[in-house]
Write a structure and sequence with these properties.
Blueprint (H helix, E strand, L loop, with lengths): L5 E3 L18 E6 L5 H9 L14 E3 L5 E3 L17 E6 L22 H17 L5 E4 H4 L3 E3 L7 E3 L10 H5 L5 E2 L1
Parallel strand pairs: 1-4, 2-5, 2-6, 3-5, 6-9
Antiparallel strand pairs: 3-4, 7-8
The structure holds zinc ion.
Amino acid sequence: MPRPAIRIEHLPYAGALAGRDAAAIDTVVIHCTELPDLATAREYGERVLYPDSGTGNSGHYYIDRDGAVVEYVPPARVAHHVRGWNPRSIGIELVNRGRWPHWLDSRHQAMDEPYTDAQLAALVALLQELCARFPALAQVAGHEDLDTGEVEASDDPALTVRRKRDPGPLFPWEQLLARVPLRRL
Ligand SMILES: [Zn+2]
């Protein structure tokens, strides 16, 4: 099987993120960017949100709509992509609008952009590669499975919406799980 072509474009602060042992990595978290395109996701990823460490929020890998895979953070470092699970997980972000640009508007929660076949194929190849490289990797979860918090809706304080809904209802879980040696958490 051909190895997936991964473009290495590390974030400027990647070297400041905590390191970890390969044995600590047992979970993959699937996200979508909830942004219009990869360039905007890069902009968000580069933002410094934690002045003490000079780091911010991002996944390790980004998969564009055409199936291009880019590594923003090496998997041997802890990226900030999910509450409570960062030290043990690899975050993979699929480019998809999600609820952009009205993320918390109660009338805008559908997440109706389909994922592309090229994205799914690239994700499968990337996961197969990561499973070969990190033998402790055994489970996969959606961000929405791990962060179930609710917040006040931006359009009506009497309503609540999910803080995180990605990858959302259109993510093809069955197709993915049939093709990678991971169980869904
Ligand atoms: Zn997410």
